[in-house]
Amino acid sequence: MKMLERLSGETRLFPIIGDPIIFVKSPQRLTSSFAARGRNAICVPMQVPEADLERVMHGLSRIPNIDGLLITMPHKFTAFKYCATSSARAKLLGVVSVMRRNPDGSWHGDMLDGLAFVQAQKDRGAQPDGARVLLIGAGGAGSAIAIGLLEAGVRDLIIHDTDEARVVHLIGLLAGLGRVTAGPPDPTGCDMVCNATPMGMAAGDPLPVAGDLLLPSMFVGDVIAGHGVTPLLQAARAAGCKTANGVQMVEAVQEMMLDFMLGK
Amino acid sequence: MKMLERLSGETRLFPIIGDPIIFVKSPQRLTSSFAARGRNAICVPMQVPEADLERVMHGLSRIPNIDGLLITMPHKFTAFKYCATSSARAKLLGVVSVMRRNPDGSWHGDMLDGLAFVQAQKDRGAQPDGARVLLIGAGGAGSAIAIGLLEAGVRDLIIHDTDEARVVHLIGLLAGLGRVTAGPPDPTGCDMVCNATPMGMAAGDPLPVAGDLLLPSMFVGDVIAGHGVTPLLQAARAAGCKTANGVQMVEAVQEMMLDFMLGK
User: Which chain B residues have a beta carbon less than 8 Å from that of A31?
Assistant: First the structure.
């Protein structure tokens, strides 16, 4: 009863806002982690329809015992404009997944998803520093992961997406951060392969990369969570690769969110 | 861990809004009661400065998994205007202490403090129906209690306040609800005596009524909570009266709030 015993008028609030909201796991996970760290704090779910974000943000901003916000779909892009300050990666993407208070009460935003993806890979043996990496998917997740990889020291980043315009746009966005090129979904010569597409969620999806070209020296990561071992990770394991999955990314992001919310 | 186990994306929210907020007991009490009734619901504290109520209300109204609000100082009067509908007693006072959703998402307000005060008396043997009652204090608490007493069938209500204008105002407000008159703080001839003033909170406060005129047949109730047995209740017990105190009122109001929030 640790959490309930501490719930009181002094409890600090960290709502997660999104729509739909019923599927989010952060209320239980983050609240448990707050308790484990001895904090009287709780993450509560708040359903916020897309059209109502402005009014809700104006309201929540005026509640001083709300110390932070977790942002999920569909608000990750629109929430950015309510941040007075933000990390360089959040600015680059125009996206925030977490917000905490500045000393003056305004919001500081960050986007931790890409960082957490890379952390999950590193925790399982990947060495992105100096690596050559094939990234599949140049959408929201892919963009965040691309930045995470470059921040981790990736030397050569090859990006593939069936939508070539998205690749061109992302490469433009990443200009100056490292060597980034467009390429085919061929892992040959790469140290890491990262899937940032939904491919593997539906039965019968093709592999996002040429699975028969995977080698034991390659580290293979997948963003997909909650769908068991995806066909890509099955192929990677069969080829002798080390792997990381979307659940491990989600676990990493929880700890990062907690550190961020507590100002670390 | 019952509460924490159920905390999830499906949890329904019932914030309590006020300023200061750190002293409120509803988050733990109401949340425990929700759990005891098998509800995945939580009461969370929200500090809302007086000047920010409008923006906060506009925001909270747009969060569909907020099913109800508890209102405490300084918002009990101002929150009334955000209620599309309200009980007759809330309208009379222009005050709400609780709000729940109407089917269209708008707010329905009520003011349960007076009702809870009377319930605490009845639970301990008072019989307000047909009674003659002396009420001390014509402020916010006194006004709510006056209505609660008249709704419970009090035949004669005598109100005393050192501020005579407040008594005149309250008697005007209660016109049509029953026989209400101004009078001295003399319990002679009364079945019940109710203190709705802060007298008894500070050391050296005089008794709100003439204590030497209390008789064993009188029921004596006090709104003061958290200050032990007040001098009035000490005098009442010494005189052989049955009594009820402010803590018992607070307990009664918790159950009433829960019933109200759950639409009962």
Answer: 4, 7
